[in-house]
Amino acid sequence: ELYFKNLSKQKQKKVMEKNGSHHKLRVCVATCNRADYSKLAPIMFGIKAEPQFFELDVVVLGSHLIDDYGNTYRMIEQDDFDIHTRLHTIVRGEDEAAMVESVGLALVKLPDVLNRLRPDIMIVHGDRFDALALATSAALMNIRILHIEGGEVSGTIDDSIRHAITKLAHYHVCCTRSAEQHLIAMCEDHDRILLAGCPSYDKLLSAKNKDYMSIICMWLGEDVKPRDYIVALQHPVTTDIKHSIKMFELTLDALISFNKRTLVLFPNVDAGSKEMVRVMRKKGIEHHPNFRAVKHVPFEQFIQLVAHAGCMIGNSSCGVREVGAFGTPVINLGTRQTGRETGENVLHVRDADTQDKILHALQLQFGKQYPCSKIYGDGNAVPRILKFLKSINLEEPLQKKFCFPPVKDNISQDIDHILETQSALAVDLGGTNLRVAIVSMKGEIVKKYTQLNPKTYEDRLELILKMCVEAASEAVNMNCRILGVGISTGGRVNPREGVVLHSTKLIQEWSSVDLRTPISDALHLPVWVDNDGNCAALAERKFGHGKGVENFVTLITGTGIGGGIIHQHELIHGSSFCAAELGHIVVSLDGPECLCGSQGCIEAYASGIALQREAKKLHDADLLLVEGMSMKEEEPVGAAHLIQAARLGNARAAGILRTAGTALGLGVVNILHTLNPSLVVLSGVLATHYAGAVRDVIQRQALSSAKAVDVVVSNLADPALLGAASLVLDYTTRR
């Protein structure tokens, strides 16, 4: 709350001048249960902290006001919010008919409240039946609706309710790119969609380092240690109540057998919850020495409990959404969250029909620690939502507009898009330099940092972390929203684990190195790692000549020779992650020795190292320099001198380059006959010198059916960094 007060003081004058209006937006926030309040409370604090812009009215209804569910309206009062209206809307019975009657009772009571409040806008969260009553009432009374967390996908009747509220709502705040795309596909107006992230993440991402031992002791006992207990939270599935009750019974049996201290929270108010409570009491859970059964835990304390748990089990959306922020292992049971985007920490047991399956899942997950996930937010949702609210023009027509069909399938226009650029941190580990860059979604390198690559593992990792932290901090000042970190490195890489298996001789002490874990832990961002040749291919696929091409190959011509293969729009890694080692295609049985130990590889003829070797031979024999060339006394001989000599008429130098180009061309012919791509992209500093020779060899040596291939030179300025960035941008966009 203090943060929002300070923020508002800094921006108040500027925003007032821009708006030219002193009208306060009257906002009604309606909360129905403990779960939606955890998402709405950060927004309410933000609104309350800016009284010069907003008037806040709080309406409480639903299970907040029921003793069996913890009378959770009290935590709203403890947060110092004035509750304008309390509406008792739950019809007891906890079956399907009771849910319908509860919606009807809310529809009867809400019009009088809304007539008295007359808000400019009502904020409604999620997919509960109470929220459907709120949205229906507001829509029919011509009150604008802002819907939080629309566009998401899950199981049960919640999906239908969520999408119904979306059609009633005038404005949408979504948490993920995928949810945004769903809203666009549902024909919602692009200009009224804000991709903000989940508001609860604003509190989650700063919570883990707070004192937690006293909270664990209070709820689970003084003898319990962090990572040595379980949090269980399971709700009924309204579309299959009988099965969900049976699954809950199996879950409790598995937890009893697993024999770890467990905090069990009572289920929500949906149909079937009463039967689930009966199952708990039948098994004596409330009196079992290993269990603590509670109706409600305050959100701030609940955060600490799941952050330091050995595992969370159940079917609550909290498990697949919020818990990922801490990397706590989660077991998601049944179909209630089917379709939700999840991090690595979630193990799904879709058909949890036996105790053994659930017990096996507990044995697999308990005590693990996964990388922190930011799929659902980066901790800055509330400032974006407040800006979005301030941008609402009450003079605009109230009637909704739909977009038939959706015309933009990649990005929607929102109030924050003008100020923030969705970006990736790209890291390129070369033989000489270590580079980090901030790269935008459009492939623009916003800022680049370069340092010499240290020789030892410890120094190299320390420098990577330092440069990434510096770049991430500066990205905030440059209004770049970092989605993740992509790393391009030489050698063989296991991209699934983020591990460098073994490297080239150019990078020392770089074998069996886990890059993902330390960088993800330090930055709290997802991390992807891949070979530099594969990254070059990904860069071409997203930003270069390979965009939209189904099958193509990229060859990097630099210090070494590398490459990447795109087949049916996907990158090929191979069974042991050494696909596309194109530099080690053998084109001569008795050729020069390669760094790999073999003879006659393309790299032994056409790489920068090979050309440097031949240039030194000519120079030592005093056959390199020709008229128009000069070299300083201590200047090292390199491939550039060989190329310059060939241009100035040195026949021997020209012959060496011709042989190198032929070797590369023969390698490309082998690739054409093996993979039959429609495009070959030559990348790297030597690409322009080899393009003509490669095309000539193809025309002489390739089968007629393969000669039609296009051979082009890459137009990308920095394929390694762009490829590393595309690891992040492609994956996060797809999710």
Give a quick precis of the structure.
An N-acyl-D-mannosamine binds at residues 492, 504, 532, 581, 584, 603. 40% of the residues lie in helices and 19% in strands.
Structure description:
InterPro entries: ATPase_NBD, ROK, UDP-GlcNAc_Epase, UDP_GlcNAc_Epimerase_2_dom. It catalyses: an N-acyl-D-mannosamine + ATP = an N-acyl-D-mannosamine 6-phosphate + ADP + H(+); UDP-N-acetyl-alpha-D-glucosamine + H2O = aldehydo-N-acetyl-D-mannosamine + UDP + H(+). One of its GO terms (molecular function) is UDP-N-acetylglucosamine 2-epimerase activity. The chain is an alpha/beta fold and 735 residues long. It has four domains: 23-198 and 381-391, Rossmann fold; 205-365, Rossmann fold; 414-544, ATPase, nucleotide binding domain (Nucleotidyltransferase, domain 5), CATH 3.30.420.40; 545-715, ATPase, nucleotide binding domain (Nucleotidyltransferase, domain 5, 2-Layer Sandwich). It has 24 helices and 26 strands. The strands form five sheets. A seven-stranded parallel β-sheet has the order 3-2-1-4-5-6-7, sandwiched between helices. A six-stranded parallel β-sheet has the order 10-9-8-11-12-13, covered by helices on one side. A five-stranded mixed β-sheet has the order 16-15-14-17-21, with helices on both faces. Residues 13-21 and 406-413 have low confidence and may be disordered.
